[in-house]
Design brief:
Elements lengths: L2 H22 L8 E5 L5 H9 L4 E4 L2 H10 L6 E4 L5 H7 L5 E5 L5 H11 L3 E6 L19 H9 L4 E7 L8 H6 L1 H11 L5 E3 L6 H6 L4 E4 L1 H4 L7
Parallel strand pairs: 1-2, 1-8, 2-3, 3-4, 4-5, 5-6, 6-7
Helix pairs in contact: 4-5
Bound molecules: pyridoxal-5'-phosphate.
Length: 233
């Protein structure tokens, strides 16, 4: 099987999974955008994905993302930055990313805004919210729900940034359906103050069904589409 055939087959399975989950809760699958996470995979795979109708790709490391976005510039894809973001890299990320999903602190607002203004177009922003249970445990990235109102106001107050919604990752070792169920009230509270912040990016290869059932508008899927990630470093 060629790489193109392999990706096409995996992609078909993932699209069926998304459609199945959406219809199981009476949602139109059109309302769920597949973001294929291409980290560690070569630009040649990104090209194949574009040929297969993928419109959105995700990357989590600045250097790799910048190089790949430049190499694939003519494909017209939407580039989502989904990784932990250092404030000294944020302006550079805004120079090629169409969406930054991992905004988790106010310190990122000024450099993202500067990068967006230098590029000459507004940048779409999602706030990454932590779903770690209140009793702690091994934390994954994200802002506490308590800090979201202030962060959202800060993003909304900046002309170069567009507050589009939320991003979340299910904590390890917890039923993702339970973790994602914590998103509903957080999202409702955000929408009360920011009615245009309707997007919800949640769900990966292993838990995309639970995320779609919990209302995700974007799922970020890597290995289920591209196979096991090559080990780099
Ligand atoms: C790598 C990554 C994904 C994709 O993970 P898979 O399990 O390969 O689907 C999704 N979201 C984030 C934030 C990631 O870093």
């Amino acid at each position: 099987m060629s790489r193109a055939e392999e990706i096409a087959a995996r992609l078909a399975v993932v699209r069926r999974r998304i459609a199945g989950a959406a219809t199981s809760v009476d949602r139109d699958p059109i309302g769920v955008t597949l973001v294929v996470v291409t980290k560690f995979f070569p630009a040649s795979d990104v090209r194949l994905l574009a040929e297969l109708g993928v419109t959105d790709v995700g990357e989590n490391r600045h250097q790799e993302a910048m190089a790949k976005a430049a190499e694939c510039a003519e494909l017209g894809l939407r580039w989502h930055f989904i990784g932990g973001l250092q404030s000294n890299k944020a302006a550079a990320v805004a120079s090629y990313a169409d969406v930054v999903e991992s905004v988790d602190r106010g310190k990122l607002v000024a450099p993202l805004s500067r990068g967006a203004r230098e590029r000459g177009r507004p940048l779409d922003v999602l706030l990454q919210v932590s779903l770690d249970p209140p009793d702690g445990g091994r934390g994954r990235a994200g802002a506490d729900a308590d800090s979201l109102p202030a962060l959202a106001a800060e993003v909304e107050g900046d002309d170069a940034l567009r507050l589009c919604g939320l991003m979340a990752v299910a904590p390890l070792g917890e039923d993702p359906a339970v973790a994602f169920s914590r998103l509903a009230p957080i999202r409702e509270a955000l929408l009360r103050d920011h009615p245009r912040a309707t997007l919800l990016s949640a769900g990966m290869s292993g838990d995309l069904e639970q995320a779609v059932r919990a209302g995700a508008t974007h799922v970020r899927v890597g290995s289920a589409v591209l196979g096991p990630r090559p080990h780099v470093q």
